[in-house]
Amino acid sequence: MSNKKKSSNIAAYFTIGIFIVELIISILIYSKVLGSPSNFENNNLETGHPINTLGIIYKGGFIVPILICINLVIITFFIERLITLLRARGTGNVSNFVMNIRELIENDRIDEAMAACDRQKGSIGNVVRAGLEKYTLVANDGSMDKEQKIAAIQKDLEESTSLELPMLSKNLVILSTCASIATLIGLIGTVLGMIRAFSALANSGAPDANALATGISEALINTALGISGSCIAIIFFNMFQTQIDRITYGIDEANFSILQTFAAKKH
To answer: Does the global pTM surpass 0.85?
Structure first.
């Protein structure tokens, strides 16, 4: 239990470290890349108008590096989840693997089914192999009746499944959180930009055109960055959730096949 808690703390510190590093990178991108004088007329950040897209984004203000950080976090955990789920999915087609396992179990070819699990190298293979190992142990155990054997196999399958599933959904909450806060932070930038724009209009005499344009740019840029980050995070989250559902369904189907096959046999 202490090892599990220790590994959880390490993962938490690692995640916090990623946020800090990417926030620093975002600030550097904002100040050094987007804020380069070459992106503005007369190489002047204060009075020069942006001459390219980088300069326009820079005018979004201090909210921009926060939104850049959120987008970097989304990309980072997209890559992390993609690698994890590809490993969890294993080799070959999940549906074909489950059908093959079912056929092997029905024909009492347990050793071949275990070998197939080893070749699959995914979460389904790990769970099914654990169930098959228990299957072979209780099959010839004369001290247990049939119901006890089925309960023992089911318990082992459930324990193996409970160890695999948390790893599949780990860090998905970060993507869902980014999807929510990206839009909200973008809206904060939008409100601040509109305040600046209306302040320019409220000045006595002729409105400050430069301040008005800056305020409107800040509002629109932050909105665009926030909505873009939110859309990307939602797409990634739903894509991964679909993959997890497929793997979970495959695990449940394989577990059901093992239990049904054992129940149908006379032991």
So the answer is: no
Determine the structural domain holding residue 202 and report its residue range.
Answer: 62-267
Q: How many independent structural domains does the chain possess? A: 1
- Which residue bears the tokens 């324990």? 159
CA distance 36 to 192: 23
Burial label for 171, CB within 10 Å (0-12, 13-18, 19+), is middle
Which helix (H) or strand (E) segment holds residue 72: the answer is helix 63-89
pLDDT tens figures, 210-248: 666 666 777 788 888 999 999 999 999 999 999 899 888
Cβ atoms of 225 and 60 within 8 Å: the answer is yes
3-state SS, residue 88: helix
The residues with which 40 forms a beta bridge, in sequence order, are: 50
Name beta bridge partners: 50: 40
Q: What are the C-alpha distances in Å from 146 to residues 110, 253, 262? A: 18, 21, 9
Query: Is 90 or 30 the better-scoring residue by pLDDT?
Result: 30
> Would you state the structure tokens that stand for residue 48, as one six-digit string?
């020069």
Residue 54 domain flag: no
Is residue 50 assigned to a domain?
A: no
Domain contains 44:
no
Contact 199, 215 (CB under 8 A): yes
